[in-house]
Task: structure prediction
Amino acid sequence: MKDRIEHLYEYLADEEDARVCTDISDSACREVPQNFLLIFMSQFMTKLADSLASAKVILPWLLTSVGAPAFFSGLLVPIRESGSLLPQLVIGGFIRRHEYRKWYFVVGSLLQGIAVIAIAWAGLRLEGALAGMVIILLLILFSLARGLCSVASKDVLGKTIPRTRRGLITGYCASAAGVVTTAVGVLLLFVSRPDTEVYAMLLLAAGCCWLVTAMVYALIREYPGATEGGGNALRQAIASLSLLKTDLPFRNFVLVRCLMMSSGLAAPYFVILARESSTDGSLLSLGIFIVAGGVADLVSGVVWGKLADRDSRRVLLLTAASTALLCALAGLLALAGGFGGIWLFLLLFFLLGITHQGVRLGRKTYVVDLASGNRRTDYVAVSNSVIGLMLLLVGLAGALLAQLSLAMVLLLFAATALAALFTAGALPRISD
Result:
């Protein structure tokens, strides 16, 4: 069995020596083939669960089907994203006190599964504003658990997988998730009038995926890590913020990541413009855009992962330039009254999906490779907390500006991506 695992790893990693390690211990190196496959399986199950319980698609439709006020739908994405990012500064300070970090991911996965199953129950049993309030409260629990997983997973990845294979494993997971997302989108195309029971079944399936993820992740062979500085979590969190002042490469990385938020925030505006430019809005199904996003992940994940392993800084540069170009084109088309119609915006949406996948893989690989030990945990926690706050502020500002002009929002996103391009040029290139 062990030989089969090593052969499969060698095939996926495209190398003859399955134990090429440059920055992890010899003991951890011997476990790379098995850990590589276990992490791949857990990340794939997580991506599958994310598709089945999408806060951008499934949850809004569930809230609508139970008669919850639209106000609750507007809270879904900000809570899901920021709720998992903002607390990571404190979470990181707590996790760093312990030599083994995989168990925090296991607990986080279990809590996510339980929360999503409870949301499915609320959708079946409750109605109106009460259903909305309960679902939002459960989503807060889900987001906090997600933040726990985020910090722990990056640290475990850095401890168990060599530097030149971290982007690859994430890329394989992204492409595999693309297949699943595409399938979900196709399913929604054929389910013209889905009801609450359909949404609840999707959420129950998602919850089961997170429970399976917890069991798979528990099998990872993790060796003890650094615990220096693992004192009071809140005090450590405040002290970690000093990295933004004293650590120039890290500060520049956080700045680039803030400026690159446009690659994710711009997507809904592309969909809005597509709807407005359609001669018959009823012909535009959200399922088409889900399929486009899934295919974008499918065709680009592994490619971006391999490029990130070679030079994650270059990936950030390429995706910054691409984001600036796509947002500028969409903004100019908006000024021209939606010239080109729905299919041109669908193409831009597809290309933005490919670009955003590169942004995610590039910055994840870069921050994991930039440091080791507890410094890596600090990097992830500080950067995610800062991004969580900025997502709330920029998301709110973009929503307000969109009331005046969608074109101005997209042109502003293009400008920030262009600024990210120049800022990323100052990042140090991480060598093997």
User: Anything to note?
Assistant: The chain has two domains: 1-13+24-227, 241-432.
